[in-house]
Request: fold
Amino acid sequence: MNIGDAARESGVTAKMIRYYESVGLLTPKARTMAGYRIYGADEVHSLRFIRQARRLGFLVDDIRKLLALWQDRSRASAEVKSIALEHVAELNRRIAELTSMRDTLAHLADHCHGDSRPECPILEGLADPDPGSAHQEGCNSK
Reply:
């Protein structure tokens, strides 16, 4: 199948297939005399694997490791688990950061009158280089 067919079968765009080839997640296919790349079931299966790993937020380097482990039937599952748990820890760090950002912004918005007055704890909070004090000032601005 050509790249368009592989894209449809895998749920990955042709542009992303080319990108995955360029970063080494997928082996670049030789071209036919007409200049088309020909993909088979193995490549489509790998593309689905990559798509799912990306959906779970894995970075390209981790996907490369996971692909290698997936293709190595003699691998130890402990290696796979280690990569997954490192990713879970990173996701937890990012969730904590996002939660903090959300809470700070919600706090500032709660303390903004949202009327015609120029005073705005949201803008004051954004302009304050010390986020901790912006949170405190928001409390005093209500």
Q: What stands out?
A: Residues 1-59 form a domain with the Multidrug-efflux Transporter Regulator; Chain: A; Domain 2 fold (CATH 1.10.1660.10). The radius of gyration is 24 Å. The helical segments are 3-10, 14-22, 41-55, 60-71, 77-110, 121-127, 131-140.
